[in-house]
Amino acid sequence: MAPRSSSRWDAIVVGGGAAGLSAALLLGRARRRVLVIDAGAPRNRFAEHMHGVLGSEGAAPAELLRRGRAEAAAYGVERLEGTVEDVRDAEDGLEVRVAGGAIERARALVVATGIADDLPDVPGVAERWGTGVLHCPYCHGWEVRDQRLGVLAISPMALHQARLVRQWSDRVVLFSAAIGDVDPAHLERLRARGIGVVPAEVLEVVGDGPSVRGVRTADGRVTEVDAVFTEPAPRPQDAFLRSLDLRRMEHPAGLGSLLEVDATGRTAHDRVWAVGNVVHPVANLPTAISEGAVAGGAVNGALVEEDFDLAERSA
Ligand SMILES: Cc1cc2nc3c(=O)[nH]c(=O)nc-3n(C[C@H](O)[C@H](O)[C@H](O)COP(=O)(O)OP(=O)(O)OC[C@H]3O[C@@H](n4cnc5c(N)ncnc54)[C@H](O)[C@@H]3O)c2cc1C
Known about the structure:
There is one protein chain. Strand 2, helix 2 and strand 3 (78-81) form a beta-alpha-beta unit. The chain folds into two domains: 8-117 and 233-314, FAD/NAD(P)-binding domain (3-Layer(bba) Sandwich); 120-230, FAD/NAD(P)-binding domain, CATH 3.50.50.60. The protein has helices spanning 18-29, 61-73, 137-140, 157-165, 184-192, 285-314, and strands spanning 8-14, 34-38, 78-81, 84-90, 93-98, 103-111, 115-118, 133-134, 149-152, 172-175, 196-198, 202-208, 211-217, 222-224, 227-230, 233-236, 248-250, 257-259, 272-274. By secondary structure, it is of the alpha/beta class. The structure holds flavin-adenine dinucleotide. The site of flavin-adenine dinucleotide has 39 residues, from helix 1, strand 2 and helix 6. Flavin-adenine dinucleotide (FAD) is lined by residues 14-20, 37-44, 46-47, 50-53, 83-84, 112-114, 117, 130, 136, 139, 237, 240, 276-277, 283-286, 288.
């Protein structure tokens, strides 16, 4: 556990992934006293390489975080390994309770805790998540281009995912059992671009170690594929904010209940911002970095105004 230098921070960033470190870097450079509290389990930790990230194309996810931590630390940002369990209003700020009992106080909070991916309960999926079982063709489609690709439906979003994945290969099969009978108009559209549809229940994704070989279905067949795409259900990691009773909204595409934020990431609480996957489950790394930077600037702007309010009051 890193030593800490402040008993009251200008800002605490909960979550030290791409979004949180980006916010922390901005705030550190704005000469704010910043603590990042991080449980150390970024969402893409299952992948060996990250893609579509300008300047870091093909690098290991851990390398981006190592660099981000060092860059933020160069401006005095401190880091605490731990899990935040509760946040409450306190006099002129917020009180943040960390597992194990430590309490930290701050004038502002940036929530960047990401999501957990609830994977389909199909044998062979969890152990190949991030290697042979993928979700984002922009992140990993190039690496499996022109290969035999399966799309494992969980929700009607799979119809869109199958059409998208077709951009990377003309050998795509949709395993549709989980969404029941597919509307004939959708079927026609899929078939127009050569996408096969297997309606039988999926029993297992088979493979060797991290690699996928095929999908076994209840009709006794194994359809040979080289990789599988699926859309896990996103679970925002925001339960520790329950005491603040923040406003929430339903995601327009059915991705669940999320904290409501404005364009700068500010929630209904004027000291709490939320950025990255925890509020935008489809955000990739560049988007998460961008949201963190926007919120970092907005938090500093709010603190600047508060500094003037306090100065005027005590003048
Ligand atoms: C398998 C896989 C591969 C991916 N590949 C790519 C890719 O190639 N390119 C790309 O652009 N995107 C990729 N993504 C998406 C990418 O992972 C996300 O865009 C990115 O992680 C979002 O950043 P974040 O900071 O919002 O969340 P995260 O990176 O998930 O970071 C959240 C951090 O908060 C911590 N945390 C959670 N709860 C608490 C708590 N209560 N207290 C303290 N800390 C907490 C977590 O442990 C974690 O360290 C991939 C995703 C997956 C699942």
